[in-house]
Amino acid sequence: MTDPTPEELLEFRLEARGWLAxxxxxxxxxxxxxxDPFQGRLGDAERVRRAxxxxxxxxxxxxxxxxxxxxxxxxxxxxxYQQVFAEEAAGYQMPLWLNASTLAIVAPTLLEFGTEEQxxxxxxxxxxxxxxxxxxxxxxxxxxxLAGAVTSATRQGDGWILNGAKIWTSGAxxxxxxxxxxxxxxxxxxxxxxxxxxxxxxxxxxxxxxxKQANGSSEFCQEFFDQVAxxxxxxxxxxxxxxxxxxxxxxxxxxxxxxxxxxxGVVRARGRGRTAERGPExxxxxxxxxxxxxxxxxxxxxxxxxxVLAIVRRQLVQRVTAGVRCGKLPAAAGSLQKLMTATxxxxxxxxxxxxxGTSGVVYRPGDDIAARVGRDYLVRQAxxxxxxxxxxxRNMISERLLGMPKEPRANEDxxxxxxxxxxxxxxR
Amino acid sequence: MEYELSAEQEALREATQRFLxxxxxxxxxxxxxxxxxxxxxxxxxxxxxxxWTSMLVPEEYGGGSVSGDGLRDxxxxxxxxxxxxxxxxxxxxxxxxxTIATAGTAEQRSALLPAIAAGxxxxxxxxxxxxxxxxxQDVRLTATATDGGFVLRGEKSAVEAAAQSSHLLVxxxxxxxxxxxxxxxxxxxxxxxxxxxxxxxxxxGDVRFDDVEVGAATVVGRxxxxxxxxxxxxxxxxxxxxxxxxxxxxxxxxxxxxxxxxRYSFGRQLASYQALKHRFADMRLWLEAxxxxxxxxxxxxxxxxxxxxxxxxxxxxxxxxxxxxxxxxCIQLHGGIGVTWEHDLHLYLRRxxxxxxxxxxxxEHRERIAALIGGSET
Lengths: 428, 378
What we know:
Number of domains of chain A: 3
Radius of gyration of chain B: 21 Å
Number of helices of chain B: 11
Helix content of chain B: 40-55%
Largest interface: A-B, 43 and 40 residues
CATH topology of the largest domain in chain A: Butyryl-Coa Dehydrogenase, subunit A, domain 1
Helix content of chain A: 40-55%
Strand order of the largest sheet of chain B: 1-4-5-8
CATH superfamily of the largest domain in chain A: Acyl-CoA dehydrogenase/oxidase, N-terminal domain
CATH class of the largest domain in chain B: Mainly Alpha
Order of helices and strands of chain A: HHHHHEEEEEEEEHHHHHHH
CATH architecture of the largest domain in chain B: Up-down Bundle
Number of strands of chain B: 10
Number of strands of chain A: 8
Distance between the termini of chain B: 35 Å
Strand order of the largest sheet of chain A: 1-4-5-8
Structural class of chain B: alpha+beta
Oligomer: heterodimer
């Protein structure tokens, strides 16, 4: 694939700009509309339905799956085109719900490991907005140690029977399919007895329970599998080689959460209704003005700091992407992007509360901007946990970028069934 | 440092490294600490032949860049200078050369640029005013029009290489606004007081202008309308500072990582302790971010982009905060040897601390950003 020329990109940019203006709805006001978290996100089903429609509009216009191969409904273009499109799409309603898992993690994983039948069955449907996917990796007892999965798939006749539980899937009750990591050989060492399956989340035996978060919202769910029957054709990748597949899913996840995925149409900062093109300062300036602190030197320092961090985060993401592309950085450098995004987001959340002051903690009913900052602060650490904790990213950076010795691990080579594990229910 | 340099830029980087390793290793920097000018004129002329003074000077005056983007080439040199805590007035000479080349008269260009490019003369920018005022709106030195010229009255502070410079570019307030003058440093009424500096080899002076009479031909650019030139000079200064800090921090981080592999305590490599690995990971991230934001600032300044003011302040605020902190943590990871005169760590901490404070400390740049994005300045 040759690099596009600036002229080609400009031509595409102008085409996209015109098409977006003619076909896509603008965002309402200056924010993506969000529900009041205390109302339990009743509007999610409607928002997902809307996202499917928007995706279909993109597909019909030829702007879905710009970097996906033509034979699966994409355009087969270099990643620069997606970047240009994302820039032009700022300010328009975009199918954000389909972004992270479905388009940026599941679809590239199916491209790499799926059979031809699986790719034909799902990728064009995904690009048309017809399928909404989940990644089913984390488990209630597993924490960061995803390879310690205890959800099991047992051979039965020509197929498999799935039992166990997964956790931290956002809006699972609205999703159609999931890529599920399950143990298929308990006598094999930990990383060599796992396989990945396509699971239809609407089938009998699957139940979904929402998890209420500290800020009162229910963004995530837990899924239970009770004697769920899977066909032999549900296996993705090689039997007992599921860790290879899951590792790629994690790679794609770090890229999308770090803001560097070439597959995502637009990037949304976790937990906040903004596109990548908008910094946090608009909110902070408004909160400072509302609190009567617009001229306070200390507040202005905080606004300046938030802006610096937001800009440098974007610069870091771009630099690392370029470094990986030209081979000067290993793919594991995605951990730099993830850690930067997480720590920046956490710091800006703290800055928001500091500027809001009293109005962030005591407020009238409603969806006041300062109150939202206070509630965001309650789940500040979510960005530093989801998609691989900061501690895991720091292990990756020190071990894979700096070549430092790996953390010692217990029982990695013996049969998994003999390894010590967390007992009882837990959600870590 | 940008990841994708052209072959010519790589060659420039290697030539700069070879020169500094051979002619100006840290042992020489330590010797220069006791010498008055802080650099050797002979070495400066050699450096000039390697492009240190020519990147922002047009070819017809003896200059010329490697890639056509003079500042990006110069930033490569500045970064290597940071890596070696190099001596020499790289920043003020290039800032003044850039303004003479773009805003100076034909006479000013022919009189100064060939000598600057050849390393025969050193010039500096007299901008900051006491105490520590780095903003254009704070300039109080006045230039009052007389018959056929101007009289300069006021004080400048922290002027680099003031005592070594043949000419000073003086930013002054005139009736209509800001103006700049290029004046010989030995005019009657100009007095330089040499200062002590935290850096071993960078020299500074306070400069007084007591009724200094200068001719009309010393005006650089449009009288009373030098705001844009001054702002660009500040962006150049910030770009070069950021490149230099990044080079210094990169070098310190890299030999500290090596130290963590080499040293053992309690029978284990230092690099095997998770508590230390996680600190190295954070430093690795901040360093990469320093590179990213310095590169963006340099590119924006090179392109004279609309957001160059914003991006140079972003880079200065970020690197000015994180650069010295990374070095302090590297000192901590070295243990006791890290706070000795014998170890080179303090040479780097000195240079980066100097760069952090000059041309506006991080807090001043955060205020500059708040004013840019949020409305009027306080």
